[in-house]
Amino acid sequence: MTVTTEFWIVFNLVIAVMLFVDLNVVHKKAHAVTPKEAAFWVVFWIGLALCFNAGIHRFMGPEKAIQFFTGYVIEESLSVDNLFVFLMIFKYFSVPPQYQPRVLHWGILGAVVMRFLFIFGGVAILNRFHWVIYVFGGLLVFTAVKMAFEEERKIDPEKNWVLKAFRKVMPIALRDFVDERFFIRVNGVLHATPLFVVLLVMESSDIIFAMDSIPAIFAITTDPFIVYTSNVFAILGLRALFFLLSSIMPLFRYLKYGISLILAYVGVKMLVMGWFKIPTAVSLGVIVVVLTASVLLSLFIKDSSREGSPAA
Q: Where are the domains of the chain?
């Protein structure tokens, strides 16, 4: 099956409609998302991705289906690292729980647009300069090592280059959050609210994550449709996953090592693909085993530094 331009348009229109309904119907009224509500949406988005995967299997064949599923699992697992950063951003700016869904919604919409641009740019580069795949592989291995040995990530918006540039073109209102508004007028002059600053910091952080996650899926396939759709479905479920896991994310202390191991594996897969091609099914098995092991280690190995503390 050849993916036509019309199919691309229909897919993106469906995604746009779902995001519109999500913001203007499901979450029209600002409220703190409960674990039960978050769990429902996590199941919904995963179920939707699996139904789409079944469609790929039906119309594009089993090989494309397993590529989509592997890419989806990779992107979903790498997005967990995003969740830690999102949590720190919300804590840094003291964003009330009822306003967090709106920020995440627009952050996800921006992430979809950026992924679209990055993916097609990356595919074009790989088609013209195949040797870039080895650069991507080396970058992923370097990122994996850095992630495994770095201390907890720090959030310092004052050093964010996007925020610095934005301040030069628009003033920021130095006041508390104004409902869910991103912009207000102060003495007739348009100002950005602190909530928009949070969104800006989040979007700029996602650019960094995209530089890791998109090269990772290129190790599985360079089919732009498979790469893009697996990215989109992983991103769409990110907000619900955040609210479901935000309270327990600190417990998964070994997860970052699992993610770094996955990045290292994918990077090595890229580096050796010119001489040895690892089947996609094998990659999927490795990723699932590593993720499962890191979660189980986090749950069953006690953290001696937390023993005796109220949080423990």
A: 32-152+213-300
